[in-house]
């Protein structure tokens, strides 16, 4: 049995300061002490991480440094595990279909890109329809969406 590695000087765990923020939904007022950690312009942050609020960035960098101080020595193992998991994913694998109305949506997975930038929609078979009378077809709808339906 291997012994756990004791880190000499791990960084202290960062503590996010509480900044109470209250909001009301459906007549219920909720106080969230950590709402400040969600940037109001989060969609812009996804496009350009440089626009992230400085306080949030500093806290996230402290969290990352803390994690690295504890788990940094496991980097080779992490890399090996990711390589092994990627080797087990089939090239044409996809997520589990999620039903939404008359279609079920899934996301194709590729080894090269993890998840492709389009979703697939497959027509759901209802109890009144038969699988033999419906033939699957696929067509492009828009520049980045593949829509598959049963005709």
For the structure shown, list the relevant keywords:
two-stranded antiparallel ribbon; disordered C terminus; single chain; 151 residues; 2 domains; five-stranded mixed beta sheet; alpha+beta; 3 helices; 25% helix
Radius of gyration: 23 Å
- Which strands sit side by side, in order, in the main sheet? 3-4-7-9-8
Number of separate domains: 2
Poorly predicted segments: 114-118, 125-151
Alpha carbon gap, first and last residue: 59 Å
Alpha-beta classification: alpha+beta
Q: Biggest sheet, open or closed, and with what strands and sense?
A: 5 strands, mixed
- Helical residue percent? 25-40%
**Fraction of residues in β-strands:** 15-25%
Judging from the principal axes of the Cα atoms, what is the shape? flat
Give average pLDDT, whole number. 75
- Let me know the number of strands: 9
Tally the helices: 3
Instruction: Summarize the helix and strand pattern as letters.
Output: EEHHHEEEEEEE
In words, what does this structure look like?
Helices cover 25% and strands 25% of the residues. A hairpin with a 3-residue loop joins β8 and β9. The protein folds into two domains: 68 residues, no CATH class; 53 residues, no CATH class. 1% of the residues are buried. It contains three helices and nine strands; from the N terminus they run ββαααβββββββ. Strands 3-4-7-9-8 form a five-stranded mixed sheet, with no helix packed on it. A two-stranded antiparallel ribbon has the order 1-2. The protein is flat and about 50 Å long. With 151 residues, it is an alpha+beta fold.
């Amino acid at each position: 049995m291997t012994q756990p590695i004791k880190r000499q000087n791990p960084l202290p765990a960062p503590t996010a300061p509480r900044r109470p923020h209250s909001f009301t939904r459906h007549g219920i007022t909720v106080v969230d002490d950590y709402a400040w950690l969600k940037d109001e312009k989060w969609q812009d942050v996804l496009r350009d991480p440089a626009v992230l609020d400085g306080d949030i960035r500093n806290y996230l960098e402290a969290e990352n440094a803390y994690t690295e101080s504890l788990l940094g020595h496991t980097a080779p193992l992490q890399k090996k595990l990711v390589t092994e998991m990627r080797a087990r994913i089939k090239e044409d694998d996809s997520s589990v279909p999620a039903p939404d109305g008359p279609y079920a949506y899934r996301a194709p997975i590729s080894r090269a890109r993890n998840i492709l930038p389009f979703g697939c929609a497959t027509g759901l078979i209802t109890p009144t329809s038969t699988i033999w009378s419906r033939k699957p077809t696929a067509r492009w709808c828009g520049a980045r969406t593949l829509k598959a339906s049963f005709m």
